[in-house]
Amino acid sequence: MSPQELTQYIKAEAKSLGFDVCGIARAERVPQEISDALAHWVSEGKNGEMHYMERNSDKRPMLYHRWGGLGSHRYPIGFSGDTIITWESLEYQPEFTATSANVNYGYWGHDLGGHMQRGQIPTDPQLYTRWLQYGVFSPLFKTHCTSSEIIERRIWTFDDHYEYMKDAFELRYALTPYIYDAARQTYDTGVSLCRPMYYSHPEKQEAYDYKEQYMFGDNILVATVCQPVDTLTGTAKRDVWFPAGNDWYDMAHLQMIKGGSKKTLEYTIAENCWFVKAGAILPLAQEGIQSLQEKTNALRIYVAPGKGRSTYRHYEDDGVSQAYETDYAVTEIIKNASASGCTVTIGARQGSYKGIDHQRDLTIVLGGLDSKPASAKMGAENLEITYDQQTKEASVKLPLLQADSQVSVVIRY
Measured between alpha carbons, how far is 219 from 277 in angstroms, rounded to an integer? Predict the structure, then answer.
């Protein structure tokens, strides 16, 4: 069978079977002309498979493609290719990913942990942990590697680092509502989820000099730890620049850091280096979430410490169909905080989509508190408060509510 005949055969079989996700990666044993023809068929042109899936199914098609140069990212979600497993590779990826926003390549990622090893060096669990911690704050979160007896990606095989690795997975799952909101923002504005610091601070030289830090959405600053821990202190150092205009809450050390400052911070292998704008709101998934495929009306509303007023626009759609262009819902969340307390107002949901849940299961989480608040009220109703001294977080569980009604919760310290 000639390459042309084989290409036509694969196209016919794929269309007859139908599929929701298509991945393209160059294989050494496949003739280049076949690989190129299939890549063009899947991703380009009015007769391409991407358009075929759009026309013949209500589901959102997804293409997953190796990086193929500028222009290849028009349709696919991408990955960068085969990286060497070194600390230097990890150090390069934050800047590489964030600056890709400059060419609108905003939804792509890497093989977390690296792809291939030079020499017979077994997997370093510390390096793998740091790579996973970085991956939490990248558009794609996926582990992968070449076929090798010395490279391991199953986190449960690392007894001494398993809990730290699992924490990275759990944090990623918790952040999915925030990430989905940022994905919609990217769709609407073209501003990528990961973005260089100079997007917000173009006149500041530090925005160009601190290459391993970036913004993850509007409210999270990330600075990847890119070196092993010191054998004496058990920590790794990370230089971070904190832009002026607001303070920043250190989610690892649970302390507020003044905006307009530079710090050298130290992190154990258990700690991830990320910060939330003072007073900002983050929508989080329900605690203990196990699956992203199951729709839920549960939402945690995390409020970072910080006085004053903050607003947030939370987005929802059905998660699977192409109707997201017109069929979606948004909820405005407003926080007003002072030295004596905090009021969180969840507005009435605006909009609708197929399968929408008309009730919502909400929990408000206040971060950075040194003690349990004195009270929490929704109207005249007293609400129960739970407090975790270790995380310095107070949680207020709301009763099941109708989503088309506004509600305010007043918390007194």
Answer: 5
